[in-house]
């Protein structure tokens, strides 16, 4: 997004109130970080946050415009919605693009003048501590966020390190300055969510505490430590449940003379600083283990008080991360590309303290040895493209990610890999056991540095744990029966793909018995295929398909997870050739794909299913089960149709504006799809070494690989008048197939596209040119 100059300047009245903050605050960030627009996805259903963080960092310090009750939390899964008129504070933990909400820990609000203790009604200015704001005063860069709180005349600036969030507040000089800390609210809030909390002021002025919440991950504990660069003149601790108030005063060299700590379920603290002549800097660290660890994190990662230096460090971290790809193109193209790459590099998040301790799925404290422990795993989403993108760009991090997954499995009370986990704890959200293809994809593409035998043991344990998602019946019957388990068709299909990915790694490791078992299980997709209707369906325990059947129906009680038969019947990424045969051959497969995209569908059809968005016919780009579908024309010998559909998707589902994502970014999956597609290829089948070729959407991209090689993608005649691929060369030689090998990218070189106005219907049509599959084409 091109920034309007007005975004960087306050109205005259507010400028007079706060004075001039550093000019650096409004300057564009250098390098690729300057092309990132964190506001993209903060409107509509993108569910991204605009605040400050660093690549895969533990802190996501961002404004919260609302923390509604759990019945209305969907739109505010990241705490912020672009259309909201007020900010209620700045909290330190957020998901980026999730379809579910939680976090919003350690909410801080700077206040000038009188202090109110409740957020108040956003429609009634002055009814609480929340403040109005204008987007014209927001500055959003990679690693930095600033806004003016209009009701207080306070300029708030935020930046972050790996474990520490930094605040700088410029208060009006004629009003007393306060910082309010509210330990009650949380994203996905409801009465009684906070089970217990502690808040204390230590003799050196450090504020610390913990709280335990009954949220998405039950019993989650989060501790913090907070310090200020200026002394408090007084402070008050509140227990709002019992209405107990403890006041304390602190002068130079004196200690508070009264109660220094409080326990309860509704705690707040107000810290008073009098009238300030210079900005107040606040630094906050977190820990899922203990207050002591939070303080240690602050001591080691939060040294000094130089906010601008910390901001520069955050920018440098982003420039280093984003420099893995140099992209040429228009300003809008660069903004969209680097914002997508930024979003793809937010998760999983560091979830380990400076001493190596972290909390595991058993709620116990563990110590990582020789790796950094990461969590925030939306595995149903990120195995498709986000994690394969990290394997390509950051295989060193993939090693830590896999070690984290193995460590979580070893600490799991059920002995299985994470499903949807954050801060080390499991939520059991979504289906499949998709940590398996994450590990297999990395291993098949050469990532090492982890114990492959331990990984295989964890993968097999996850694939054979009968109580999970009715794997017991799946192993017995070859499918998940709908009378025993909901969403049975989706589960059958996803288990079969996960089985295949496990078999690939077992084969590569020489574990032939394991490979044979799971190769056989990978064919179970056929048990969901109904040749009479031409759709994937759920069966009953007696082997009959459940009736009645409506391929357009989606929602609670259906055969599918966040989708319908039209969207899920294409989910056989391991055996697209077999699916083509089952559907009657290339022509019928191709025609049904056309029918999917060209159908006239009223979006209100899915009004009761929040995640099915971004419709093009029945295709739903806002939800992950559709993400590979446009590339399937490659497998039927019609890659020019893949090129058409990709253009349609890129032009309608992404834009450089707050509502520029058609659905949840899902911890980087939507953005990773964009990155791969812009480059011209996509991992339809993670755990293979192949990428299906689409068409590029940037004129030139140079991928700087960690092995020292560069892989360059160049597109000649790339414009609206030339939407089709005319020919492709790899290192100067004609490429007659519509796929790349991962090893070809790692070797370095140049992939050269020549675009043209009309389809090239012969390129990629032959059977030998198509991506490989479990079955042979035509059989």
UniProtKB/TrEMBL annotation:
GO cellular component: cytosol
SUPFAM superfamilies in the cross-refs: Six-hairpin glycosidases (SSF48208)
Keywords: Signal
Domain Glycosyl hydrolase family 92 N-terminal residues, every copy: 36-287
Record flagged with keyword S-adenosyl-L-methionine: no
GO BP: carbohydrate metabolic process; glycoprotein catabolic process
Gene Ontology molecular-function annotations: carbohydrate binding; peptide-N4-(N-acetyl-beta-glucosaminyl)asparagine amidase activity
Pfam families named in the record: Glyco_hydro_92 (PF07971), Glyco_hydro_92N (PF17678)
Signal peptide range: 1-27
Domain of life where this protein originates: Bacteria
Record-annotated Glycosyl hydrolase family domain positions: 293-756
NCBIfam families in the cross-refs: aman2_put
Name of the protein in its database record: Alpha-1,2-mannosidase, putative
